[in-house]
Amino acid sequence: MQTNRYLTIAMVAVAIVSGCSSIPHNAALDEAHDSYNNARTNPEVTNLAALELKEADDTLNKADSALSEGENEETVDHLAYIANRQVAIAREIAKRKTAETAVTNAAAKRDQVRLEARTAEADAANRQAAISQQTVDRQSAELAVAGANTLRDQTLIAQQQLQLKELNAQITERGLVITLSDVLFRTNKARLESSGKRKVEKLADFLKQYPQYKVLVEGYTDSRGSSDLNQELSDRRAYAVRTALVDSGVNDARIGSRGYGDEYPVADNDTAANRRLNRRVEIILSDENGNIVPR
Question: In which domain, by residue range, is 205 found?
């Protein structure tokens, strides 16, 4: 009986060790967790940059979920990088606010010194020294603010690049282009399939997050069928995508649409595979000033 009990304990121990060895591991994510945990033990960061630290925590949770769900290492690394940047922002903001507090305290102290100086008929040299110190304090605070803003900009750019990658946006001579293939529509119809709707919803989320962008939706067909029918189908498919974006909450003033029929093929129309490439909807993103390069 005693021997059986020991065997049972040993088997449980082996199972625990085996289970631990199967836990997913990512070095960049471990480093991001360490950075976050170190920042969380700093009272200045937790008190003065709680919101930024919460953003880092949310991103780490996304990274943990991506890792546990088996997403590719590049996605986990990218989320870990964003979390690291958010922790760095939290530290810089805490440093900036500490500097601003020091400036405020210094100002109060200077007021007292000036009062005492006037009472004691202090000379102009003392007043000049106080002015010089005020300049140093202000410049220190400004530098801290500039550092925090730079890190925040870098993080926003990284987040935007990740979203564009998920949309499969391609860089072309007209700018960033997102292509919806023919399989996202019903055959010879302008009705979006559910997979097409999901992709349009992702694009809508991006556009709502970055209101400076506009889009032009362009429809294309292969060369089969008459020019009039091809033109009509391409117009309707482009307009269907525009309607889906508006239904998802994007201001219709930011969206243009038109069809080109069987013009501008991306491949010869001699095979079924090539014709499938030509049956498409392209979504062209503007630059940050809302400008789109025309055909």
Answer: 169-285
